[in-house]
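User: Fold this one for me? It's proline dehydrogenase.
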Amino acid sequence: MSLKDFFIELSENQFLNNNAKKYGLKLGAQSVVAGTSIPEVIESIKELNALGISCTVDNLGEFVYDKAEATAAKEQILAVIDAIHESGVDAHISLKPSQLGLDIEYDFCFNNLKEIVALADTYDIFVNFDMENYDRLQPSFDLLKELSQDHDNIGTVIQAYFFRAEEDIEKFKNYRLRIVKGAYKEPSHVAYQTKEEINQNYIQLLEYHLLNGKFTSIATHDHNVINHIKQFIKDNNIPHNKYEFQMLYGFRRDMQVALAKEGYNFCTYVPFGQDWYGYFMRRLAERPQNMELIVKQVFNK
Ligand code: FAD
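Assistant: Here's what I get for proline dehydrogenase.
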């Protein structure tokens, strides 16, 4: 088993996920998770805003199989939206449908999402539906389509490792889209497996949406992709208000600040909350060098 598969399996382990919630931020997670409470995350956002960086806030949590837990997550996200509005910070919301009941019942999840999207809409706050693994892809697109009949403050993610990504991006080009390589382990009948194939499709999708789409969030830490896309944007005179760069909180901070200083719109994905374990393990799967973060954290105590 590769190190990547090992960390992905750990990220999906229900027992470890549940136990991690009880013990606060551990294993160095505090360097990539902006606290466990709403006041803490608002403070982190203010610091990033002061550097000219906007934020998308993720109340950590996924794969919820209990209605009470999904309802509690919904309440927490509503409270985050109120806090963003009241504090006046430059931030929007990212959420995972599986935290809000996608695996329990479609209509239950729809109603939870509707409440969130409607409140955010009253404050003119954008809500991004993060994309999870393949089984949740089509129902998440269905939810997005149904909700967009009444609201236009929503968008989603296209994962470049999926064969169907090209078709999906065409269907959803009139939405604000975050384009990523893809973070889950997917089988070879639905997804590209090699870095080369994924990178190639990633660049193609980014270029397509930059030329034809509503708004593109270029979400990657890959400097080769970023340099290529900067040149593409220049060559094609893509206006600044049609795209932004995105990276995760705690990763390549110097590059985040540098891109914002160069005048690019930049948005940091800011996760917070008790349910940090699955998110953190996926970051280790993507790049085992992220273990450095753990080591630094341990020795800085
Ligand atoms: P990689 O392919 O991991 O790395 C490419 C190269 O970039 C590396 O070889 C290295 O040279 C350099 N590099 C990368 N990271 C670092 C670093 N920390 N320090 C130094 N060099 C580095 N996935 C989903 O499936 N669904 C989502 O909804 C989703 N949302 C996301 C939101 C944001 C804002 C971001 C940034 C990612 C999101 N992802 C999501 C994860 C994404 O799919 C990738 O798994 C993740 O971004 C890793 O790919 P990468 O393009 O950043 O770079």
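One thing worth pointing out: The longest strand covers residues 266-272.
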